[in-house]
Design goal:
Blueprint: H1 8-17, H2 28-64, E1 71-76, H3 86-107, E2 118-123, E3 126-127, H4 134-154, E4 160-164, H5 172-182, E5 187-191, E6 207-210, E7 213-216
Parallel strand pairs: 4-5
Antiparallel strand pairs: 1-2, 2-3, 6-7
Helix pairs in contact: 1-3, 2-3, 2-4
C-alpha cells in the first residue's frame, strides 16, 4: 500500500477549526486506495464509451447540420494525461491523490477522481459551451442522442428513440434532415406542442393529449 504524505500546515488548519483536536487521518490511505482502484474501473469504462461515441457524434452532427461544423467529443480528466489501461489509470489517480492531499485535508473534500471529470464537446476549434448558437446547441444535443442510439444498435440492441419536443427548436432544414435520419428506427416516440412542427415524412400513429384524455388522431 502506498503511504500518502500529509501537510503539517493543512493539519494545523483542520486542528484549529476543530477547536484544538487533531484530525485522525490514519484511514485516508485506505480510502484513497479504494478510490483509485474503483475509480480506474469507472474511468476505463468512460474512456471506452467516449471512444465509441466520438465518431458517431461527428457523423450525426454533420448530418443534422448539413456539414456546417465539426463536432468532437473528448474526456477531460484534469488530474492526468489520460493513460490507457486500468493499471495506469489507478497509478495515476493515486499519484494525483498524493499531490492533492494537503488541499483536500484543508478543504474537507476529495478534489480529484471521476466525480471531478467532464465530457468536453467542441465545434471546430472552440468548446460548444458558451460558443454554440441556439441551433448549433440543439443540433449537438440531437447528435448525442442519435450517437447513443446508433451505438446501442451496433451492439445488437433495438432501443426506443425518444424525441421530446425537439422539432420546435429546429429550423425547417434541420427538421427534415432529422426526420430522414430517424426514419428507419424500429420505435420512435415524438412529442410536440404544435403538430405542424413534426415533418410529414415521419409516419406512424399520432395521438392527441388534451383535457386529461388521449385519443388517436392519425
Amino acid at each position: 500500500m502506498l503511504l500518502l504524505g500529509d501537510s503539517p500546515a493543512a493539519e494545523a488548519e483542520v486542528t484549529a477549526r476543530r477547536g484544538g483536536a487533531k484530525p485522525d487521518l490514519s484511514t485516508l490511505d485506505v480510502w484513497d486506495t479504494h478510490l483509485a482502484r474503483h475509480g480506474a474501473e469507472l474511468l476505463a469504462g468512460r474512456l471506452e464509451l467516449c471512444a465509441g461515441l466520438a465518431p458517431l457524434v461527428a457523423k450525426a452532427y454533420d448530418a443534422v447540420s448539413a456539414g456546417r461544423g465539426d463536432a468532437a467529443v473528448s474526456y477531460s480528466a484534469s488530474w492526468s494525461e489520460q493513460p490507457h489501461g486500468e493499471a495506469d489509470l489507478a497509478a495515476t489517480l493515486v499519484a494525483a491523490l498524493v499531490e492533492s492531499r494537503p488541499a483536500e485535508v484543508e478543504r474537507g473534500v476529495t478534489l480529484v477522481g471521476p466525480h471531478r471529470d467532464d465530457l468536453v464537446l467542441t465545434l471546430g476549434e472552440v468548446p460548444a459551451k458558451g460558443y454554440a448558437s441556439h441551433g448549433e446547441s440543439w443540433s449537438y444535443a440531437l447528435a448525442l442522442r442519435l450517437a447513443a442510439y446508433d451505438l446501442l444498435r451496433s451492439e445488437g440492441i433495438e432501443p426506443v428513440l425518444a424525441l421530446d419536443d425537439v422539432f420546435a427548436e429546429l429550423d425547417v432544414g434541420r427538421r427534415e434532415r432529422l426526420a430522414e435520419l430517424v426514419g428507419d428506427a424500429s420505435q420512435t416516440l415524438v412529442t410536440c406542442a404544435v403538430e405542424a412542427d413534426v415533418p410529414a415524412g415521419l409516419r406512424g400513429g399520432r395521438y392527441e393529449v388534451a383535457g386529461g384524455e388521449v385519443r388517436r388522431v392519425g
